[in-house]
UniProtKB/TrEMBL annotation:
DNA-binding region: 24-43
Assigned keywords, A-Z: DNA-binding
GO terms, molecular function: DNA-binding transcription factor activity; transcription cis-regulatory region binding
Domain HTH tetR-type: from-to ranges: 1-61
Lineage: Bacteria, Bacillati, Actinomycetota, Actinomycetes, Micromonosporales
InterPro entries in alphabetical order: Homeodomain-like_sf (IPR009057), HTH-type_TetR-like_transc_reg (IPR050109), HTH_TetR (IPR001647), Tet_transcr_reg_TetR-rel_C_sf (IPR036271), TetR_C_31 (IPR041583)
Record carries keyword Nucleotide-binding: no
Keyword DNA-binding assigned: yes
Protein name per UniProt: Transcriptional regulator, TetR family
Domain of life assignment: Bacteria
Coiled coil feature spans: none
Length: 192
């Protein structure tokens, strides 16, 4: 592993352990086992390195979420049971990797402070909505109509973010897949 890769790995570790604001150049260099000057040489600044590490962690987070969202191989499940199971798997991933999930929140906070990050964050959100809509509609992503992405994808992404945050904030009272399905059913009843 070269210095660049070691720094990226070190920055990822520091982000998970300390967060963006508390991670120093010294922390990253020490974790990576390279000189502090290497950060400037390879990334230009601590912030650029941490942003690349954040997006790398977000990619990992997206992979985990995607695996949880793809229905488990259980053809005997009906749509409601498959959706409930998907939520249970997603919440299990959040419990297994809480720091990874919380790092995604850190990116949202940093994007508010660093406007240059907003276009990348917005692009990631568009991809997330599109991917979720495709998974739920069981069609290739290229075939999902824009309206479905804006409705189904948006609502699913909002639900996922909110439910996972609740589960991480209050693990003893974390919602289950059955709770999410029951809540959606109650909302549908209110809406008629």
């Amino acid at each position: 592993m070269g210095n660049r890769e070691a720094l990226l790995a070190g920055a990822r570790t520091c982000l998970l352990e300390k967060g963006f604001d508390r991670t120093s150049v010294r922390d990253i260099a020490t974790t990576a086992g390279v000189s502090m000057a290497a950060i400037g040489y390879h990334f230009g600044s601590r912030e650029n390195l941490l942003f690349q590490a954040l997006f790398s962690l977000l990619d990992e987070w997206g992979d985990l979420a995607g695996r949880a969202l793809v229905p488990a191989d259980a053809p005997d499940l009906g749509p409601e049971q498959a959706y409930e199971r998907m939520w249970d798997e997603l919440l299990a991933q959040a419990r297994a990797h809480p720091k990874l999930w919380l790092t995604s929140v850190e990116l949202f906070m940093q994007a508010q402070r660093q406007p240059d990050l907003l276009p990348q964050l917005a692009d990631g959100m568009r991809q997330g909505r599109s991917g979720m809509a495709a998974i739920l509609a069981s069609v290739p992503e290229a075939e999902v109509p824009d309206r479905t992405v804006r409705t189904l994808g948006t609502v699913q992404l909002a639900l996922m973010s909110g439910v996972v945050m609740q589960a991480l904030a209050d693990p003893d009272n974390a919602p289950t897949g059955a709770d999410v399905v029951a809540g959606l059913r109650a909302l549908a009843k209110i809406l008629g």
